[in-house]
Design brief:
zinc, globular, Rossmann fold, binds adenosine monophosphate, kinase, 9 helices, Adenylate kinase, alpha/beta, three-stranded antiparallel β-sheet, binds adenosine-5'-diphosphate
Length: about 220
């Protein structure tokens, strides 16, 4: 199964991706996670990406396409399927996605679109914190680890908040993503691939909605 997951920053893509990966065994390919890893490792690509990410802007398309193509070309994707999160983010990237999938013989099964009222995004993003070891996502009000200070997934004890989750950057990120996502969704709607999910409920309700869609594919 090969999927895209879409939604504004903070809509809950990463949170739902954890469930999808656990239940369906697909590989989670998040461009944001790959950039953060490259920044942590201080690679040349990471240094370049950081300049854009810190301002809430998009990393240039040619850089991002290279990163995605390299990851999608690995054998595990063909074997297990993929869940793309954070890519594509503009119509050129959507066309690049279609080209890369065609080149690699991957068939896109669905685009999961998590719809939320943008007014809730700042609260979701400002409460977000992440496990340093495995990247699992939590929220200081909505989703605390079951045992305080211990990651549910890997048992890690250290957590961080993303640098680009500060209010000034968040506004820019939401605005850019709102404008650019409409043509992407139109493109995939024409192909009959978009599955709209109401992202305004609790995490478990949304998981059930996503699962119902995927079980029906
Ligand atoms: P995205 O990957 O779309 O940027 P995340 O999955 O990281 O979004 O979610 C953003 C924040 O909101 C996280 O702190 C997460 O724990 C929390 N969150 C996710 N889904 C919900 C929800 N349905 N209700 C409340 N909080 C949520
Ligand atoms: P995310 O983790 O998806 O919220 O992404 C964090 C940041 O990484 C974004 O604000 C962008 O600066 C950058 N980024 C992630 N994915 C892409 C993409 N597909 N194209 C360009 N920039 C991206």
């Amino acid at each position: 199964m090969n999927l895209l997951i879409m939604g504004l920053p903070g809509a809950g893509k990463g949170t739902q991706a954890e469930m999808i990966v656990q239940n369906y065994g697909v590989k989670h390919v998040s461009t944001g996670d790959m950039f953060r890893e490259a920044i942590k490792n201080e690679t040349e690509m990471g240094k370049l990406a950081k300049g854009f990410i810190d301002k809430g802007e998009l990393v240039p398309d040619d850089v991002t396409r290279g990163v995605v193509m390299e990851r999608l070309s690995k054998e595990d994707i063909k074997k297990n399927g993929v869940l793309m999160d954070g890519y594509p983010r503009n119509i050129d990237q959507a066309i690049a996605t279609d080209e890369m999938f065609a080149e690699l013989g991957l068939n896109l099964d669905a685009v999961i679109n998590i719809e939320v009222d943008p007014s809730i995004l700042v609260d979701r993003i400002s409460g977000r914190f992440i496990c340093c070891t495995c990247g699992a996502t939590y929220h200081k009000l909505n989703k605390l680890p079951k045992v305080e200070g211990v990651c549910d997934i890997c048992g890690g004890h250290e957590f961080y908040q993303r640098d680009d989750d500060k209010p000034e950057t968040v506004e820019t990120r939401i605005k850019i993503n709102e404008e650019l996502s409409t043509p992407i969704l139109e493109h995939y709607r024409k192909l009959g691939l978009v599955k709209d999910i109401n992202g305004m409920g609790g995490i478990d309700d949304i998981k059930s909605s996503v699962k119902a869609v995927l079980d029906n594919l």
